[in-house]
Design a protein that fits this description.
single chain; Glutaredoxin; alpha+beta; globular
């Protein structure tokens, strides 16, 4: 293994510090939970997770959005599944969420506060939806 210079070590430390900040929960009131059970991973949940991280960063939301993973949500037939929790909106579970739909989720749901009707699995009751 080659020796690292002091500047390379500092750059590595800074890179890892930024990676750890992404996992920090403090101040993040929006949550995206990706189902990463074996069925989810086989259906592409890892790629969906990575795409969501990229889209959150592209939209400058990394300071307010926590993206995390969980095990099986029990909805294997529509994997990958993503649960979205936004204050002032009902909690929604989306199915068949691919890396391609990550941009739509971030722009419409997180930024525009609109539900993605074509992917909703757990539709909120009409009486709790605000017009």
């Amino acid at each position: 293994m080659a020796k690292m210079t002091l500047d390379e070590l500092r750059a590595l430390r800074e890179s890892k510090r930024k990676d750890l900040e992404k996992r920090d929960v403090e101040g993040k009131d929006i949550q995206i939970v990706v189902g990463m059970g074996t069925c989810g991973i086989a259906a592409g949940a890892k790629q969906t997770f990575d795409a969501l991280v990229d889209q959150v960063q592209k939209n400058g939301l990394e300071g307010s959005v926590l993206i995390r993973q969980t095990g099986c949500m029990g909805l294997c037939y529509v994997e990958p599944t993503v649960e979205v929790l936004v204050p002032g909106m009902p909690t929604v579970i989306y199915g068949k969420m691919t890396a391609d739909t990550a941009e739509e989720l971030v722009k419409k749901h997180l930024v525009g506060h609109q539900l993605l009707d074509n992917h909703i699995l757990d539709r909120p009751a009409a009486d709790i939806m605000k017009k």
